[in-house]
Amino acid sequence: MKGRDVRLVIQKKLFDSDTRHGLNRLNMPLKQLQTNEFLTQDEKDHLKKEKGNQIEVRLLGPTLEMYKDPMSLRWWPMEKTDNYVFATNWYRFWSENKLHLKRDSNVQVWSFRGSDQKLCFAVVCVEEPVVEVVDSDS
Predict the structure, then answer these.
(1) pTM
(2) CA–CA distance, 41 with 128 (Å, rounded to integer)
(3) Counting C-beta atoms within 10 Å of the first and last residue's C-beta, which end of the chain has fewer, N or C?
(4) Residue 101: is its pLDDT beyond 80?
């Protein structure tokens, strides 16, 4: 897959809330973003115009395969910070990639434009969580 305008959007720890079935979303707080320049002005305006507005995006997973189902990118204003979130199919995406995207792992979300200029993202694990090994002989 060819892409252009590649930008690191965020590096964050995957919290329990990012992997919970009932929430079905990856939260990306504005205060933690590396850049806010991954959206065009039209896309920003669309997301912020009305609550519930969304942009359909594609997600490249940690195995470098494009996820089969589209994802929704939404704007969620909250009391402490505003957020962008991946929603709709996030839990399924996480479930199918949880061998790579473990809770407490640090992940990076990168944005890029596909050959059709559509907004896409790549989610990669940059650090595995430390797993304590218990020696059964002790």
Answers:
(1) 0.84
(2) 35
(3) C
(4) yes
